[in-house]
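User: Show me sequence and structure for the first protein, then do the same for the second.

Assistant: Starting with the first protein.
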Amino acid sequence: MTDRLAHFVQAHARAMVVIVLSFALAGLAFIFRLPVAIFPQTDFPRIVVLVDNGITPVDIQMLRVTRPIEETIRIVPGVTTIRSVTARGATEISIFFRWDVDILNALHLVQGRISQITPSLPPTCRFYINRLTFSVFPMVGFSITSPTRSQSDLWELAYYNFAPRLYRLPGVAEARIVGGRPPEYHVLVDPQKLNSYGMPLTKVTEALRNNNIISPSGMVQENYHLYLTTVTGLLRTREQIEDTVIDVVRGTPVAVKNLATVVAGERPIYNVVTANGRSAVLVNVLQQPDGNAVKIADSVNAELNDIKKTLPPDIELSTYYDQSVLVRDSISGVVESILIGLALSVLVLLIFLKSWRTTIVAALVIPLAVLIAIVFMKLFNMSFNLMTLGGLAA
């Protein structure tokens, strides 16, 4: 068998050289096109459903939210196990599927089933439905601190300034803000005044909710043009909230200012975030599943450098986590291992065999094998990560 292989290679030496060189050139072309990440792209057969329902008691949350969602998603094909954790105003449901199930299709089916029962769920429910992948973990994280500004100011800076600029970058999936206190207005109702008008508290909340909307009002046709019109009632200032009419009592309009006090406040936050010894707002940048971690991190860091140039002197922006550093170190380690292995193999062959021809052939085998492996990595949609780089180094 070995003799036949040797005769075949000898008879087709030029063709074999052309094939090997073609694979090597293709490997050189693909080496800059493969995505780079810390972990391989893996679709775990698991979907996580998170539901936020304010401060609803646990028993009510279980009865009105957790149980209906569990019952409706059991119909999705491929489900093996459903696990749920219910807390005050929060539900976490983990749905496990068989490994042969298309998880993207299963995600759409789960979203469709939940959307069908959404009208029967409490209107205050907020959903987060996603599949479990390595991309759910942040790749770049930075903190925003200031010795003089409030947490509301830092949150607004992160939400209205930083996040939109990061979303424009290719490969960025989400800029998740942690900490801070979103600003809002608090309406403090006086019970005695409310009773004097004979109104229930629900009427105040309904009036504010029904006025704080944008609604289409129809169409206007003029001069061969059709204009779509809308009516906005969004409450943006304290005065607009105070002038909102709740009801008409004995022919007199009753506004919010007649029975309540409107004050500027902050949304209640139940976690504390600090950085560099101060209260801080964190921004975690998540990449798309098929993104290149190194390129995305370079784009994010370049954007952060541009942002720093426009910041006031009392605001400090610092990076506390960068996943691309580990990826770069891994790549450097692989290159170093290949070079050390190549040098040692050449030295050993040269000392013991004392043949330059054999040594040169052996020296070419290692880089050619790596380039050919890169070609097959491209064909099988693989990426440079800790596992593949470890395999190349071995």
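Switching to the second protein now.
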Amino acid sequence: MVHSRCFNHNNLYRISRTTPHDSEYVQIGDHSDVMAARQTGFAMLAESSVQEIMDLSAVAHLASFDSSVPFINFFDGFRTSHEIQKVEMIDQDELRPLIPYDAIKNFRKRAMNPEHPTISGTNQNSDLYFQQRETINAHYEKVPAIVKKYMSEINKLRGTDYALVNYYGVKVGFVNIHLYRPFPAEDFVAALPKTVKSIAVLDRTKEPGVQGDPLLLDVQSALFESEYNGEVTVTGGRYGIGSKDFVPNQVIAVFNELKKPYTDQKKRFTVGIKDDITGTSLEQLGESLDFTESSTFQGEFWGFGSDGTVGANKSAIKLIGNHTDKYVQGYFAYDSKKSGGLTVSHLRFGDKPITSTYLITASDFTSCSTQAYVKQYPVVQGLKKGGVFLLNTVWNDDGLEERLCPIR
């Protein structure tokens, strides 16, 4: 069982991405903070699941030592960092042969040491600074090959197919970019199917006043210098800002937009919200779609912050994961007030791997520990036909019938 968190070690930073403050304080996640660090010189490696964090964190660490380039190893704040998931662990004995000990020795030699003082960070004038900045190019040019090397080693250990850029799909598909900096333009272009005609780039950040958000501009630049220049149309959208849930309906809305003639497409769009001011939002299906395996149990638990609901569910999902052969997933949504606010625990477990990285919309079991919620929130909206609803209440049978029947 892994409950992923973030920390830094020497020249590697593991970052659970969150939203910087602008008009309001937001303690939830998107990619805004990482995108603000693009010019720091850090290489950036991205993961989109707890299992990927397990597998690729070692790649970031090893590649950082081998390349002498600092790395940011990043993943979604809250959606991934706070998810409880059953993962396959890589044994330390399996990783030990991959460690570049000579590179680590050189790294330690460069550390500040009072026994061997050195001067760094001195002032430079215009006669030298420009030239000095260009000397770093060779280090960054080596990074993609080094990351590929260690990804290949992890693939051998895990039986996976990690690459700098992975493509999944047949008639339609999506590209998952793992190495974001240095941007692997050649690998991105090579991953595209030869039949590609339209591309929608989704960013999880907003940069006001620009022609496009960061990933969109990277993709456009890569295509401009490729065989696809002028042959492929590209649009850009935003999703999931401030941890807004990203669900299958929104993906279908993007593909529906790409099916339109390019002249009719929104060149910049949003999904998951209704933008009734600037009209950027795409129309999505009204009915929620759930592609979770039908055999997987899905439970939704509505609680009152500090009433013990979240703690009990964390314990329950860990017990199932640690003491059975079931695959498990636990995610916990909080009101910003936390204690005294709304909490919703989303638990899944079953016999097959769970890859649904969105909130439960079709539950087999729903519980509500605060009776007032049945009038305040759609607590049973996603309950499957034949599902079980458990309510903690002081109402008698007549009161239950009077209050609960209208909410369906």
